[in-house]
Design goal:
Layout (H helix, E strand, L loop, with lengths): L6 E6 L3 H13 L3 E7 L3 H11 L4 E2 L2 H5 L6 E4 L6 H10 L3 E5 L6 H12 L6 E4 L6 H11 L4
Parallel strand pairs: 1-2, 1-4, 2-3, 4-5, 5-6
């Protein structure tokens, strides 16, 4: 993958957070193309696929992780599944963006870090919303006071 190539993304989870934040973000960025989505509720995966023009939908996240046409996996599933899915994506050699918390305990987190370290040419990030970070807290009232 070069700096001018498109990152092909597989999204795991088609719930409110994926559909309200992640998928719209990918759609706005010409450097990304979501090529597959998985959700345990297949109708939700299919609905998201139609809404966001995603060519492949499944109920099995491992089908997405195992695809050769995917560079990065975005884990937007319930917290209890983050470790298993992110670890599988790391082991498959994918870049990974995982919602917080990345794991349910320190042992799982250490395993994820070790899997990421075995692939130094891949990015492995935890998507952490910084709503309480001082700069964000200061910006919030400034934004809400503006008249549109």
């Amino acid at each position: 993958m070069t700096s001018d190539s498109i990152v092909r993304v597989g999204v795991l989870g088609a719930g409110a957070w994926a559909r309200g934040a992640h998928l719209p973000g990918y759609r706005r960025d010409p450097r990304c193309k979501v090529v597959a989505i998985a959700d345990v509720e297949i109708d939700r995966a299919r609905d998201a696929a139609r809404e966001f023009d995603i060519p492949f939908a499944t109920a099995d996240p491992r089908e997405v992780v195992g695809r050769d046409d995917i560079d990065a996996i975005d884990v937007c599933t319930p917290s209890a599944t983050h470790f298993e899915l992110a670890w599988a994506a790391l082991e498959a050699g994918k870049h990974v963006l995982c919602e917080k918390p990345m794991a349910l305990d320190a042992y799982e987190a250490a395993q994820m870090v070790a899997a990421a370290e075995r692939r130094p040419d891949r990015l492995a990030w935890v998507d952490h919303e910084l709503r309480y970070e001082p700069n964000r807290r200061r910006a919030r009232p400034l934004h809400s006071s503006q008249v549109c």
